[in-house]
Amino acid sequence: TQELSKLLLRLFNLLQQNGRKSHRYEKKTVFDILGVVYNCTMSDNEAA
To answer: From first to last of its 48 residues, what are the pLDDT tens digits of the chain?
Structure first.
C-alpha cells in the first residue's frame, strides 16, 4: 500500500503542475483521472 500511496501522490503532484499551465480544461480531467485511479484501487483492494 505504500507504493500505491506514493504513486497516487506523484500522480497528484503531476496533475497539480499541469493544472497551473492549463486551467481551462484541467479541472474536469484532474477529478476524472483521480476518480478512475480511486475506483481502480478500490476494486483491487476488494478483489485481494
So the answer is: 788 888 878 877 777 666 555 555 555 667 777 777 777 777 776 655
Quote the cell numbers at residue 11: 500522480
Inter-axis angle of helices 26-47 and 2-21, to 10 degrees?
170
Domain ranges of the chain: 2-47
- HSE-CB for 7 with a 13 A CA cutoff: 9
pTM of the entire predicted model:
0.36
